[in-house]
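Enolase (Candidatus Berkelbacteria bacterium Licking1014_7), 371 aa
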Amino acid sequence: MKIEKITGKIIKDSAGFRAIASELIFCDRKFLSTVGQGRSRASAEFIQDDPWDGKAKIEGIIYQKIKGRDLDQRQLDKILFALLKNKTIGVNTCLAVSQVFAKAQSSERGQEIWQYLIDEYDLPEAKKIPIFLGVLIEGASHNNFHIKPDIQEYLIASSDLETIFLVDEFLCQALKNEKIKYERGFEGGLAIEAKDEIALNIFSQLKKRQLNFVKFGFDFAAESNNNSSLFVKKVLRQFENSIMEDPFSPSDFTQWQELKNDYPSLVVVADDPTVSDAKKIKAIAPKNVINAVIIKPNQAGTISKTFEAIKVARANNLQIIVSHRSQETDDDILADIAFAASADYFKAGNPNQKQRLVKYKRLEQIWKTRK
C-alpha cells in the first residue's frame, strides 16, 4: 500500500495531558490512530517522544522514509522499529504510525481490523472473547493522595462488563460507609486515601457477594515499590486463587520461583521483566517463574512486534493479557489486537472512564458480530 499523506496531531489523553496521533490519507479516506502513555514505566521500556516532537517526526523523518513506497505491514514496521531502536523516534510515535497503517490496510481489504491481523500474522481463528480484567482500586503512582495503597491496581476478572460496574458501585458504597476519602484514579478506578490493609479488607467483602467474576487480581508494580515476600504472602492469605502481576523485582527471580511453587493455582504475570519483548519473553519462559505475560503494544512499538511477542508467549504456553496504559485515548484498536491474539484476558482499566469503556465495548461488538 502506498501512503499518500501522513501527518501527526496532538490530542488530550484521559488524564488531560498531550498525546500523539497519526492521520493517514489513502484513496481519499482519512484514518486516525492515537496512542496513550504509562505513568509507571519499566526501566527496560523504549523512550517516548514529547507529542510535539512526535508530530514533527511523523511529518519529517518517517514520511521521508516511506513516501512513494509500496509497503505491507511488516515492511513498514521494520522501517519504524529501526528508527525506534536507534532512538530516532519514540515508542508512542512509532506505534501511532504502525496502528494507523493497519487501519488503512484493513479498510483496503474490506476487513475488520481483527480479521486483517489474523490474516497478516497467520493466526488461528479466535474462538473466545478474552476475560475482562477491570481495575477497581488504584494505588502507588496511579493515586495522588499522600496516604495510599502500595499495590498499584486491585482488579477483578469477569466475562461480564456489567459485573465490573456493579463491583465498582459496591466499593463506592463500602468506602462511604467506612468514611474513606476517594476520587477517580488515572485508570478510572477508585484512588483511595488509605493503606493496603484497609483496601484489602474492603476488597475482601466482595467474596460475600453473589457476583459473576472469575478471579481477583493485583498489580504490585514491584520494580517501583520493592515489595517484600511477607507482604505478598499476606495478600495471598486473603486471595489465594488470584492473578499476581509483577509481585517482586524483575532482578530477583528466586522469589518469583518460590511464589509459583508454593501457590500452584496462581496466575503469576510478568510485565516489567518482559516489557512485551519477544526475546525477553523467550528468555524468561524456561525459568518457570511465570505462567502469564502482559502484552502492551505501547511497549512493543509496532503491530508486528506486538504479535511477535504474542506468538513467543503462546509457544511457551503462557497466558496472554493484552493491556492498556494508565493514560489512554479513545482509540479502540487494542480490542481488535486482543481478539485477534485469542488473548486470555483483556485489561483496559475501569469502564467508568470513557477511554476504557470504548475498548471493552469494541471487544463486545467484535464478539457479537464476528463471522
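Residues 8 and 197 are 45 Å apart (CA to CA). The radius of gyration is 20 Å. ok done for today
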